[in-house]
Amino acid sequence: MWNLLRAGFPGPRFIRSRATGNLDLLPQLHSDIFRVVSAGSRNQGVVSAARLSVSDLLMAKIRVIFENGDPERVIEFDPAKAPFHHDGRPGSILDVLLGHNIHLEHACGGNCACTTCHVIVKQGGRQLSEATEQEEDMLDRAPGLTPTSRLGCQAVVEDPNAEITIVVPRYTINLASESAEE
Fold first, then answer.
1. What pTM, to 2 d.p., does this model score?
2. Which residue in 46, 104, 127, 147 has the fewest CB atoms around it within 10 Å?
3. Contact 78, 157 (CB under 8 A)
4. Is the dihedral of CA 78, 84, 88, 89 positive or negative?
5. pLDDT tens by residue, 115-154
6. Domain chopping of the chain, boundaries
7. CA-to-CA distance for 28 and 49, rounded, in angstroms?
8. Which parts of the chain have pLDDT scores under 70?
9. What does the DSSP assignment read for 121-146?
10. What is 58-168's CATH topology?
11. Beta carbons of 148 and 122 less than 8 angstroms apart
12. Are strands 163-168 and 118-123 parallel, antiparallel or unpaired?
């Protein structure tokens, strides 16, 4: 706290609560948030502030469960920074997974021409883009189809604060498997 005061931060401001009579911290009246950042090795002990907007703190989250027994993965990302990879629609589940080094089959390169990127959305389906007629027609061919099935290359995360859970099915129809090291 004293380092903050020495760096030019005003001390905490208090107001008296009408309900309890206690002193409470003054509520933030604007959408900017201050983050305390170390000033570096030259000025050790001195702290400075960086100004952030609320949008800098919004992070979407995708929880990936693999039916084949691979360990579960959780990805936090900013949808506004899409595309993360070159396959699928920018900001799609496929784009996000590949951009965070999680392999998802995609024999057609993410062009909605196969079903190898089929995923089952367990939570957060309303935070994804609407399925197109072309996607729905293609999904009719996917093994293990469910009412919440989507093609990972087409399902775009639209909510910057989304929390989505998907299951990657164990089986897919693919005549040539891609390398998992991509």
1. 0.66
2. 147
3. no
4. positive
5. 999 999 999 999 999 999 999 999 999 999 999 999 999 9
6. 2-55, 58-168
7. 16
8. 1-57, 174-182
9. EEE-GGGBPPPPHHHHHHHTT-TT--
10. Ubiquitin-like (UB roll) (3.10.20)
11. yes
12. antiparallel
